[in-house]
């Protein structure tokens, strides 16, 4: 039922100008003297026909595009990630870029790069694991000016935003030992996507426990009440738990209560994220808060530098701080 | 530092064929007889140069694109919305489409449609409030085949996925009154984006309360412990609360406990969403569970119908069911 979409030729005919003039006017190409009257006539014709310049075609001619592509990753998006994406979107909008989140998350390497490149973005943000050297070549060939890797491990090929998960474990373990804990446990989630972050947080806990001579039990735990409840004997044998995050801490505190154990009397508990639920738990949850508020603006600044200067060497972008919020559970 | 991206002309020269042949081969255009040997030569040349066909240019020629654009909306994305988006992405991938989430969320109406249209998507999913009749014309002119509205109210111009929030209120209120509640309260969040959904859930509660002769107090509440705690006298005066969602229910149960009120003895509480935290609360939370599992596949089916048949008349797509999960809090 749709007629063929109007073309710039249709606009040119209606406005009585050349197709090149239409292109100059609608794509704001510099270096051409076109009268205001002609510009107005072209714009009016485009409006009347409902003509929309084509991002692709425009990029082909001008070599510029304002799209910043971020690949959807196979990690469970928590409230923090969602909030950061929203802020990144706003920050990019303010600077004249548009954020597009690209699906098809199975893709990685060269096939991923080819798919992303078809949109001719000016910049790409993607999981470090998806960015091979060859993939990067494809992106560069397609005119992508800036690539930043995301993830738990820095990328060896491009600048990375890599959260310092070990630092979280260090903070939590240090606090528990300071509070007098002598037998620690640390939860590592078994969920895909969470496990890797759990391993890295555990590494931080291990480092501190070893340095301070405190025994540590690693607990691989699915997010299920029955699984946590089945470990009642283990919880009885420790006096401090780093619960990976606030949701696991809530799970743990529920089964500790059911088993007749008190928090912090019998077991001190520390979470991570400072979700709203942390302050609503009874006892209120001690947790590691990640301040990511500087992340979106820092990320956009780095993007603009890379766009201006071309691809940078790998370095780590670390615009965040972790602080301990001490409440009642520890 | 990047050289100019390779063009199809570069590929044609290297392969010793015409630019048209390159286009036919790389864009899988039907109706041309090209030998396998030539096809292989073109593909090899494209690989060697790192040439990526341009989504935009390809769309211009073939009139087809596999992009399904969903606009990021100014609603707080809860875990349900994020999970659904991930499933939608997978479902679209299976059928050969690619989901792109488009930022710049301030845009609405014609400016939004123009921006989306530049990517030449085959389908657009966007908040009903963003889709004016004129916006729809812009999308149609740009070759968008299917448009589906999302939101709390059905769109008057295109098919809509509109969740039945009133139905949630009806379920919760009916259950509380069945359990013997004689003075109800319903929480309406004051947060932008949640308020509208809260109003519609309230409307369902009101309907049932009126029909069954039970007085109802509307409580406009920010998500803050102090605000909920300040209403202790109000909570003392009611015996059943529909708390809007599970997170508000957790907030409410924390302050009820602090005020010495028991759940469900003094006050019965019902949440909504059946988040993991619902079963972890003590007492365990009764909640309305939304089964959205059929949503992604239904949405993709409708999209494919609309793509095949052209824009449809407005109708309501309602592939979800709400059920009450009765636990200990009611």
Automatic annotation (TrEMBL), chains A, B:
SUPFAM superfamilies assigned to the protein according to its UniProt record, in alphabetical order: lambda repressor-like DNA-binding domains, Periplasmic binding protein-like I
Listed Pfam families: LacI, Peripla_BP_3
Superkingdom of this protein's organism: Bacteria
InterPro entries: HTH_LacI, LacI/GalR-like_sensor, Lambda_DNA-bd_dom_sf, Peripla_BP_I
Domain HTH lacI-type residues, every copy: 6-62
One GO MF term: transcription cis-regulatory region binding
Keywords assigned: DNA-binding, Transcription, Transcription regulation
Name assigned to this protein: LacI family transcriptional regulator
């Amino acid at each position: 039922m749709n007629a063929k979409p109007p073309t710039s030729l249709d606009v040119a005919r209606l406005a009585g100008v050349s197709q090149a003039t239409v292109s100059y006017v609608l794509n704001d190409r510099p270096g051409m003297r076109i009268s205001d009257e002609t510009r107005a006539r072209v714009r009016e014709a485009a409006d009347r026909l409902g003509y929309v310049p084509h991002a692709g075609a425009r990029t082909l001619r001008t070599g510029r595009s304002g799209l910043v592509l971020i690949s959807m990753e196979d990690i469970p998006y928590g409230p923090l990630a969602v909030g950061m994406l929203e802020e990144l979107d706003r920050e990019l909008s303010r600077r004249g870029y548009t954020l597009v989140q690209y699906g098809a998350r199975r893709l990685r390497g060269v096939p991923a790069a080819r798919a992303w490149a078809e949109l001719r973005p000016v910049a790409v943000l993607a999981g470090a694991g998806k960015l091979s050297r060859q993939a990067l070549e494809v992106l560069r060939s397609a005119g992508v000016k800036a690539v930043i890797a995301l993830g738990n491990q820095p990328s060896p090929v491009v600048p990375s935003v890599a959260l310092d998960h070990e630092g979280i474990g260090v903070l939590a373990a240090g606090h528990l030992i300071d509070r007098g804990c002598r037998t620690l446990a640390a939860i590592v989630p078994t969920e895909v996507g969470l496990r890797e972050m759990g391993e890295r947080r555990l590494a931080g806990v291990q480092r501190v426990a070893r340095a301070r001579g405190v025994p540590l039990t690693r607990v691989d735990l699915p997010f299920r009440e029955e699984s946590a409840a089945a470990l009642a004997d283990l919880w009885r044998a420790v006096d401090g738990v780093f619960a990976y995050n606030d949701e696991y801490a809530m799970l743990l505190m529920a089964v500790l209560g059911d088993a007749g154990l008190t928090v912090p009397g019998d077991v001190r508990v520390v979470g991570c994220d400072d979700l709203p639920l942390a302050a609503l738990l009874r006892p209120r949850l001690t947790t590691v808060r990640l301040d990511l508020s500087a992340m979106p603006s820092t990320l956009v600044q780095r993007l603009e530098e890379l766009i201006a200067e071309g691809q940078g060497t790998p370095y780590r972008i670390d615009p965040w701080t972790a602080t301990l919020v001490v409440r009642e559970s520890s």
